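User: Um, what's this?
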Amino acid sequence: MTLSIAAIFIGWRYGRAKYGQQFARFINRFSLAGILLGVAALIIVDSVMNGFEQQLKQRILGVVPQLTVATAGRAIDDWQQLSAEIPVLVDEYARVPHLATSGVIQAGGRLRPVQIQGVFSEQESAQQPLELIEANMTTGSLQRLQPGSYGIIIGQGLATELEVWPGDSLRLIAAGAGLYTPVGLLPSQRQFTVQGIVNMQSEADQHLVLMHGVDAARLLRLKDQQVQALRFYFNDPFTALDAAQQLQPQAEIAGWSLTTWRDRYGELFDAVALEKRMVNLMLALIIAVAAFNIVSALMMVIQDKRRDIALLQTMGMRPTQLYLLFVIQGMSNGMVGAILGTILGLIGSLFLNDILILFGVQQELMGPQGLPVLIQPAQVATIVVAALMLTFIATLYPARKATQTLPAEALRYE
């Protein structure tokens, strides 16, 4: 027991020693700096990418339907009855009637494709699923969408392209409905008045059109109280996929059609996830290179300390204790590098926008609120553990070589 404690103490002293081979000390410091910078960079980059991912969730998946349930091929006459047949889904916090269609919006001589959504603000506001949209309104309010007013709220990008403002009139042409006439099928269309503009700071601003559900039903030529689907909101939009799987067996029996956000935006979020994995891999390789520099540094130390190793063996230190000694020495760099890297990474993440401004990065490039940053403690812990594991693996071979030192041969000329 005493020798084991001594092995730990000696190993730590060797790791922090300021004497010995100069080149070995340089490699030690270099590997420590590499681990420090690698851990810090991983924490900062992951925090920024987490922030972007969360922003995408809020600004895109907060607007588009996360999960809808429709009766195949026909409108829903009583959405409340349909809602009663569906159990509470995982992470669900609201369900509302839903109307949506693609279409074309016309302002003067300009035409733009749009996605039209009907909202029942008096019902949805009570459950707060439209809170995000209301918070990002630049002008107007969702409360201005009243039944029969034929008012609309459009995205900032769309308003800029069409050069329209609240109070202007636009013509909406719905692709999902039409009227048969002697000259053929005419698409359903109507004049609407802009009641507000929303800026979600995402690509949804280029095609989003919101109107009251009653007006949307009339545009789609549906009967009173008819809707197209039941729309579900979730605390985490990603759980909509689990909810769809939960509901799938019942949907197959009842003949319901399920649609999730992934049908339209799946490729975008897959690309974000792939980019995040590739960046993490490249930064992890930096940590790996720094960790495996410890191999060469330890081998030099072992060669330099052959006499000390032999003396410890003659004093009764067992191979396992000697093994522990050099593992501790190698791990000391990894531990110090990981701790300092974590501190630097957390500070860098928390003050990233201030640091970028200090280095002259223009505020316009970072957006009005700066780069989004989201620190996930579990992710930080994973990075630190991974860095320590790589360091531990790097110490195994040199430590094993140290145990193979023969005392008689090492002390032959002493």
Notes: The chain has 15 helices and ten strands. The mean pLDDT is 82.
